[in-house]
Write a structure and sequence with these properties.
71% helix; globular; mainly alpha
């Protein structure tokens, strides 16, 4: 099916883009993935981030150390449990990432402009269901 092939191709292109962006900011692919999760879902506990990223907590420690050293995140005490830590993205660094992704973002804006609101709603619904299918398939492998 052409649609599935196109989705695989998109996945590959986005992986290549992320790898290039990561190399520009001296981040590993997994670091960039975790930073994205933190920025979209944070603040997060390390345990919640490990779950969302599908990583072992020991692996996550090294990632968080690199992100903190690079000035991308901060570890803060959880106000509801002083023994726990929350990870927060440092938004002032986001402009650097946004500029590196600006070419793709501009292209997506142009693509979206070619479609009606109803078409975009249909595409968004399809992509959300595809994300859920991917999440379910990943969980079934564990």
């Amino acid at each position: 099916m052409a649609l599935k092939g196109s989705l695989r191709e998109l996945s590959n292109q986005l992986s290549l883009l992320n790898r290039r962006v990561g190399s520009k900011v001296e981040m590993k692919d997994v670091d960039l993935d975790c930073l994205d999760l933190i920025n979209r879902m944070g603040p997060l506990s390390p345990k919640a981030l490990a779950h969302e990223a599908g990583l072992h907590p020991a692996t996550l420690t090294g990632i968080l150390d690199r992100l903190e050293k690079g000035g991308w995140i901060a570890r803060e005490r959880d106000p509801s449990d002083r023994r726990a830590t929350l990870i927060q993205g440092l938004r002032e660094r986001n402009s650097e990432l946004l500029s590196l992704f600006s070419g793709m973002n501009s292209s997506l804006d142009e693509i979206c402009a070619d479609h009606s609101a109803a078409e975009l709603e249909l595409i968004t619904g399809f992509l959300r269901r595809a994300v859920t299918a991917g999440r379910d398939a990943t969980e079934n492998l564990t």
